[in-house]
Structure formats: structure tokens, C-alpha cells
Amino acid sequence: MKRLWALFALCAALGGAPSLAAAAPAAAGVTVTEAPPAALQVGDSFQVSATAPADGGRYLLTLTMLDLATGSSADLEGWVPTSVGQTVSGAQAAASWAGKAGKAGHYRVYVTAVPLDQPGVVTSSSPSELAVSAAPAPQAAPLMTVAVGEPVVVALAMVWVLSRRRRGARAGGER
Amino acid sequence: MSTVRVILGKEWASSLLTPRGLLLLAIQVVTMSVLAIVSLSLPDLSLMGQAGLLKLLFQVAVALAVALATLAASLTVAGERDQATLESLLLAPISGTRLLGAKWLAAAGAGAVHLLLSLPYLIVMGAGTGLALWRVPAGLGLALLLMAGYTGVAVAASTISGRTFSALVSTLVVAAVLEAPGFAAGALPKGALQKWLATISPGDQVMTLAGNLLAGKGLSGLGTSWLTVAIFLAAVYLAVRYAAAHLELMGGDAQ
User: How would DSSP label each residue in A74-141?
Assistant: First the structure.
């Protein structure tokens, strides 16, 4: 019987522990509700949304896009990287950032919540991985050929037409 | 050879093979060349992506071609009047409607040459984007609808106003009134008003249709755009008919 109870206690410990561990950070942490796509091209737009900890306090939410090659925060195109989130009447405050992938590379994206009202723990979300590949660029050689060649052709046509007109006018004058 | 063909050939030649016509073609080509070189050299433009650059270049090509062809078309009848050649043209055995129709067709045809000159730039810019390249000339084909509309407006304005400057100004006013809602819609946040303003602008709707083609999408589900373009062209046709009646009266007065 003792063995049976011991087995039951072991099963309860194994089954219960992870659920308790998973519930704890969700209550106090910052949660990314909309992560960027895993793969993007330069120029593609993306959005990141996050919610502040639901404890009634005011938080500064900061989005960081860490360039893994340089180890520095990437300069983000077209957004303000901070936002104040506040829990209002029980609802959890959300913040979102929209921007464009500006440079090819591998990035780690995460949101940090800094408490504003009293000293507390700074929390961060789980990071998302983001790979930005270079966008296809116009082919320089053919484009330059057209960009230089076509005005030359039109200029030659202009010279030809004008010389013909002048020749025609001279022939008319001689008659 | 029929009189219409003779007038069409004369108008076509004066639209393209005169110093003025060639200068307008040169403006189109040089502008496209400058834009193409800038798109290669400015790194900030890489944020638009190649597909975005193709769309930008397409819009500039169409807007410029329509503007230049409209400018030339607004001089057709008023220019003849200024040079005192209109009366002899009115003595030709041809109705006013056919005469203006020939001038309209020649002006739109000259505009088509402007679009055709932009095609190599667009094809090269679109290469490598995965876009089926038939979509580029097809998009320019749709732009011909806008070209036909505005050259028709210019021919009618040129006939009714009778003077080159007033023809030019009245064409610009018509274009501004028709296209301003589209520009306003671009500045507004998405909503019912923004959608309605964009809908009544023919330029915006033609660009929507062509933009769908260039984005690799189909043209189904764009009934409102087709309707706007059809109403615009029908209104222009009626304006040209009205102007033709006016032309016959003026011809009678002149005699």
C-alpha cells in the first residue's frame, strides 16, 4: 500500500510541477501576442504586439531587435521602439509596433517591460528569431543599357527628323 | 485614301515627328532614365523592394505619358485656330465628329507611343521579381484607357475653348477635379470616405486595375473600378460629340 501511495505521489509531482511552472511567468511577465514572421525580405512590413504584466501598474514596453551578427540593437525603420502599457479596469494593456525590415541579417526580437510606478523586476518576453534576406534588386547592367541607350536612340531620331525637315524646307525654297 | 485617314496621318505625324512631338518623347525617355538610374543608386529605395520600384516606375510612366499626350492634344484644334488653318480643315468633306475623332485617335496613339517607350524600362525592372512579364504590357494596355479619356477631354476642351492657353487651363482643371479625390483618398486613413473618394477618380481606378496585374493578381472582383472607367470614357465620348457640334457651328460662323 505504501508503495502505491509513493507511486501516486510521484505521478502527482511529475504531472503537477510543469503546470505550476508554466502558470507563474504568465501572471507576472510580458507576453508577445503577435510575433514577427520567421523569415522576411528587406522592405517587407511586419508587426509585433505585446501585453504588459496584468498587475495594475504602468509599464514602459520596449521592443528590441537584436542584430546577432553585430550584437547591437538594430535601427528600426518607421517606428518608435517604446510604448507605455497600463492595466486599466482589469483589462491588460497592449502595445504594438509596425515597421519594415531594413537590413538583411539574423535578428532576435523581444519585448521588455519596465515598471514605472514602483521599483520592481524588469521582465522580458521570450525572444523570437527573425531572418531577413536581401530583396531582389533590379539588374543593373540591363537597366543601365536601357537608361542610356533609349535616350540616345530618341536623340538620333530627333536629329534625323530635324535634318529631313530642314532639307525639305531648303528644297521647297529652291523651287 | 479616305479623308479621315489623311487627317489621322497628318495629326499622327505632327504629334510625333515634329520638334515639339520629339521633345515630348525625349522628356518621357529622359525622365524614365533618370528614375531608373536613381533607383539603382539610392540605397533608401531598396526598402521599397523591386516590386515596389516597378510599381513606382509604372505609375510615373503612365502619369507622365498621359500628361504629355494630354498637353499635346489640348493644342490640336486650338492650335489650328491660332495658326488660321482650322477653316481650311473645316472645308474638308468630313463631319465634325469624324474630324475630332481622327484628332482624338491620333492624340491617343501618340500617347501610346509614350507608353511604348516606357515598356523596356518596366520590363527590365520587372525581370527577376517572379512576375510574368506579359503583365507589364497588359498593365500599359489598361493605362491606354486613361490615355484615351484624358486626350479626349483635351480635344474637347481645345475645340470648345478655342484658344491654346484656355484649352490647356480647362483641361488641367478637369483633370484636377477628377483626380483630386484620388489624391485626397491616399492621404486619408482607410474608411468609407477614403474608399468613396478613390472610387470616383478614374486615374486611381486605372492604377488599381494595373496595380493588381503587376502584383500578380487577377482583375476579377474589381467591378467598381471598371464601372468608374466606363463612366469616365462614356462622359468623354459625349463631351467630344458635344464639341464636334460646337466645331461645326464655329466653322459656319467662320465662313
Answer: ---BS--SEEEEE-BTTBPPEEEEEEE--S-EEEEEEEEEEESSS----EEPPPEEEEEEPPPPPPHH
* CB atoms B47 and A139 under 8 Å: no
Is B38 an interface residue toward A (CB < 8 Å)? no
CB-based contact B129 A144, cutoff 8 Å: no
Residue B151 lies in domain = 3-254
% pLDDT > 70, chain B: 95
* AA identity, residue B149: G
> What angle do helix axes B164-187 and B49-73 make, rounded to 10 degrees?
160
Show residues of chain B in contact with A169, CB under 8 Å. Answer: none
Number of domains in chain B: 1
In this prediction the ipTM stands at 0.81
Per DSSP, B216 falls in state T
Q: Mutate which of A152, A154, A164 to disrupt the B interface (most B C-beta within 10 Å)?
A: A154
Tens-digit pLDDT profile for residues A133-145: 887 778 888 999 9
Q: For the sheet containing A94-100, what is the strand order?
A: A31-34, A45-51, A94-100
pLDDT of residue B1: 56
* Coil vs helix vs strand at B195: helix
The chain A residues in contact with chain B (CB within 8 A) are: 41-44, 77, 100, 102, 135-140, 142-144, 146-148, 150-151, 154-155, 157-158, 161-162, 165
Question: What's the residue count for chain A?
Answer: 175
Q: Could you give the CA distance from residue B155 to residue B147 in angstroms, rounded to a whole number?
A: 12
Residue B116 touches chain A, beta carbons under 8 Å: no
Residue A70: is its pLDDT beyond 80? yes
